[in-house]
Amino acid sequence: MFTHDGHAIGDAWYFVDNPTDTVHMFYLAWPENEDGSYNSFVGHAISKDLINWDRLEPVLRSGPIGSWDDLRICTGSTIEHQGRYWMAYSATSTKESTTDTIWDQYRVQRTGMAVSDDLTEWSKLFNNPTSEPDLRYYEGLSSGLRNMAHWRDPYLYDSSEQVYQLICARRLEGDVSQRGTIGLSRSKDMFEWEVLPPLEHDSVSDEMECPQIYEINGLWYLVFCTLGKFLSKDYAARFKNKIPERSNFAMVSNNPLGPYKIYGTGQIITHPLDSYFYAAQLVPLRGAWYLLATIHDENPDRISDPVRVYADEIGIHQEL
Fold first, then answer.
1. Within-domain flag for 1
2. What is the maximal distance between C-alpha atoms in the chain?
3. In a domain, 313, yes or no
4. Contact between 153 and 210 (Cβ < 8 Å)
5. What tens digit of pLDDT does each residue of 115-154 get?
6. Domain boundaries, position 78
7. Bond from prior residue into 300 cis (ω within 30 degrees of 0)
8. What is the reported pTM?
9. Rounded to an integer, what distance in angstroms lies between the CA atom of residue 97 and that of residue 273?
10. E strand intervals along 32-162
11. Which CATH number characterizes residue 236's domain?
C-alpha cells in the first residue's frame, strides 16, 4: 500500500524495469484540501514487491502560466522505446477555463509527451501538446453527461513498427450514452502524432477512462474504468440492479487494435457497490499479473496492495 503524506492521490501508472526487478510507479498528487488546480504533479515511487514503496522526487509538474499544461497534469503512461523512456500525459490550461468549477477546468484536454534517460529526470517535448481530438472522428465538447472535450489518459502501446496512444475520448456516431470510446493516435518518432479513428470495441458507456491494452497468453485485453451512472441502459441491465458506483472492466480480442468484445459484465473484481477501487492498472511481475488501483474512503488516499489476477477467453478475474 502507498500513501503520500499531506497529499491527495489520483490515478497511477507503472513501468516494470525487468533487469533490476523494480517497478516504477508514477501517480497524480496534489496537496490535501486543494482541488488539484495549479499544484498537481506526477509523483514517483519504486518497489520490488508492489507493497513496500520508496517515494522519490516528483517528475512532472504543471507548466508556466499561459502554457498548454498550466492548470492540471492528468493521467498518463510510460514505456521504453529505442533506448529512452517516454511518458505520455494529459493536461488542461487556464486559457480554456473560465470558472473555478472542476469540470470547467477539464473543458479542453490535450496530450503531450516527456522523455527521460533514467526514469527520474524528465523533459517535456518542445512541440507539446502532441494531440487533441480530431473532429472528423471525435466529439469536441461532449454530448454526454459531462460537458467537456474528452481527450485524456493516454496509454502507450509499442507495436515495434510504431507507437500508439490509446485515449479516453467520445466518438461522433451512435447512441449518446454509448459514445464513450478509445481514441487512437500513432507516431514513428514520438514527436509527431497522427490522430486515427477510434479503436474497435463494444459500445457500453458514456466514458471509458484510463484505457490500457495487454497481451496475455495470446489474447489481448482492453482494460478501462467508468462510473455506474455512465453505463448504457442495455449494458447496465447485465448487473441486475447491482450496478457499482464505479469499477474496472476488461474486454477481449485477438488483435491489439480490436475489435474488442465484453463478456457478461466484464467487471474484473466484484466489490461493494459504493467502493472506490478505481483507475486500476495491470502490472506483470515475476511471471504473475497483479491489479493495483486508487482507493478513496474515510482513510487517507492510497494505492492499493496488489490483487493477483488471471486472464482467460472471457476476461480478467481475481485469483481466489
1. no
2. 50
3. yes
4. yes
5. 999 999 999 999 999 999 999 999 998 999 998 889 999 9
6. 7-318
7. no
8. 0.96
9. 33
10. 41-47, 54-61, 72-81, 84-92, 110-116, 122-124, 152-158
11. 2.115.10.20
